[in-house]
From TrEMBL, chain A:
Protein name per Swiss-Prot or TrEMBL: Aspartyl/glutamyl-tRNA(Asn/Gln) amidotransferase subunit C
A Pfam family recorded for this sequence: GatC
Stated role: Allows the formation of correctly charged Asn-tRNA(Asn) or Gln-tRNA(Gln) through the transamidation of misacylated Asp-tRNA(Asn) or Glu-tRNA(Gln) in organisms which lack either or both of asparaginyl-tRNA or glutaminyl-tRNA synthetases. The reaction takes place in the presence of glutamine and ATP through an activated phospho-Asp-tRNA(Asn) or phospho-Glu-tRNA(Gln).
Known catalytic reactions: L-glutamyl-tRNA(Gln) + L-glutamine + ATP + H2O = L-glutaminyl-tRNA(Gln) + L-glutamate + ADP + phosphate + H(+); L-aspartyl-tRNA(Asn) + L-glutamine + ATP + H2O = L-asparaginyl-tRNA(Asn) + L-glutamate + ADP + phosphate + 2 H(+)
Gene that encodes it: gatC
Gene3D superfamilies xrefs: Glu-tRNAGln amidotransferase C subunit, N-terminal domain
PANTHER family noted in UniProt: GLUTAMYL-TRNA(GLN) AMIDOTRANSFERASE SUBUNIT C, MITOCHONDRIAL
Similarity section: Belongs to the GatC family.
EC number of this enzyme: 6.3.5.-
EC category: ligase
Automatic annotation (TrEMBL), chain B:
Keywords from the named record: ATP-binding, Ligase, Nucleotide-binding, Protein biosynthesis
Enzymatic class: ligase
Subunit composition and interactions: Heterotrimer of A, B and C subunits.
MF annotations from Gene Ontology: glutaminyl-tRNA synthase (glutamine-hydrolyzing) activity
EC identifiers of the protein: 6.3.5.7
PANTHER family (alphabetical): GLUTAMYL-TRNA(GLN) AMIDOTRANSFERASE SUBUNIT A, TRANSAMIDASE
Source species of the chain: Sphingomonas mollis
Protein name: Glutamyl-tRNA(Gln) amidotransferase subunit A
Catalytic activity, reaction form: L-glutamyl-tRNA(Gln) + L-glutamine + ATP + H2O = L-glutaminyl-tRNA(Gln) + L-glutamate + ADP + phosphate + H(+)
A family per Pfam: Amidase
The organism's place on the tree of life at top rank: Bacteria
Domain Amidase per the UniProt entry, residue ranges: 26-474
Family: Belongs to the amidase family. GatA subfamily.
Amino acid sequence: MSVDTNTVKKIASLARLAITEEDASRLAPELGNILHWIEQLEQVDTTGIEPMTAVIPNHLRLRDDVVTDGGIRDALMQNAPQGEHGFFTVPKVIE
Amino acid sequence: MSDVTDLGIAGLRDGFRAGEFSARDVAEAFNARVDAADALNAFLVKTPDHALAAADVADAARAAGEAPKPLAGVPIGMKDLFCTKGVATTAASHILEGFVPPYESAVSQNLWDAGAGMLGKLNMDQFAMGSSNETSAFGNVISPWRRKDGGNAPLAPGGSSGGSSSAVAARLCPGATGTDTGGSIRQPAAFTGISGIKPTYGRCSRWGTIAFASSLDQAGPMARDVRDCAIMLEAMAGFDVRDATSLQLDVPQWEAGLSADLKGKRIGIPKEYRVDGMPAEIETLWQQGIDWLRDAGAEIVEVSLPHTKYALPAYYIIAPAEASSNLARYDGVRYGLRDLPEGAGLQDMYAATRADGFGDEVKRRIMIGTYVLSAGFYDAYYTQAQKVRTLIARDFERAWEACDLLLAPTAPSAAFALGEKSADPIAMYLNDVFTVPSSLAGLPAMSVPGGLDAAGLPLGLQIIGKPLDEQGVLNAGLAIEQRAGFVARPEAWW
């Protein structure tokens, strides 16, 4: 699988990573090599094999639908790069 | 009194209980060791006061005649992947610089509840992605070991738990936490001549541990010997309702159950682990390990794990896929770095923050993960990898019909020099060729030191067990440890 710079830019955009033209040119062959290497999985016959969902058999537990936490707004906000009036703030998104 | 920093976890615990020294003496001695070892760059944050406070509690309890806690008087190092309340936690990344968790991870809380104190937060590969500790945003960790060739080439301590391995090997702490996603406890343990165990997936709660690949991540101890690993793992493990994959089981008494008598045990030697280009010294050590286990009473059988060669490529789909999803949370809104270029909107802020805040290897894996999960490719890559994972787990299940444990090398080479492999991602990934398959199957596995290579560097042997058979793994590790008589330690140059 060869990867071109347009693909790299599209993936970067999906991953919300700003990249320069230079980054894209550098990453294209690098990602291409890695993808080529992982494509050897095509050789494995997986007909009738279920994809793994849990490595160790475990059951999903249910709990009562009650609040077990809360009232910790200030603790949650203390690491925010920017906050006002108890809210996380971001650049304006609605004109 | 001899230097308490020469003692391991059991020695410190027992000496403290016997009144040979105070916990405060121990904490002060290790704090001084940590302070004198900045050249190794093993610690990102030093927390001498945390260690002293735990020591004072232990001393007061002893003076009051209270029953001692399991780790009373023992200070440890904490990998920076574990959130620690009030102590900066970054996963060695720039994007989390300045993040001070308002909560404590389950594993670290368990250790504090057991009486341990913290010497500091240990450097690591950024977000646990790496095998050499060269991806940290805060500089490489350097192994205390050096080749006996007269040169001073700085060597990799392994990764991702490289601060942990370097610190334990240099005796800056008697034990440290590690996490293992594809070999991040075992490979650094092997590179630095110490022991480390990754328990069965689900034994240690992942709550409060910064996530890399959630279906693989497991915490475990790294320490000087097998007994110390057993003691520390007992304190770290345990059911936690806050982690949906936590196993609802009692924690066995692994230390009390230690026995190097392997009569009746069958040890499988996986033939597919004899890879091309494996150094002769690794082959020799592996054979030596076989002889040691036979001497301990075990029966040796050859087994086949036919899908072994596909484990690494499957891992490098599954782990980046989960990472790309887990790391989506770093968006510059709730914690950590925010990069807001002049006049930028929300989307630009996300992209700028993440571009600035993640290192190259982290970005590489996010990109691979995003690619394999993207529309049109999901089945060909991700679903196929999860099917291969089923086959890899099935290989192990079939092997357990013929044997109780597996023996293999931990890594395909001894420690390499920093910079030697960092230009080629795939060469770096190949370091984990022997550790990834058991990670994909969620199995307990440990590395113990087996000997030194011609350059005087440690080599590790790996034992892999059935699900929940940490005891069997530890016991075989003990049998090797007793026969290997590994006493080499790095000469202090730092």
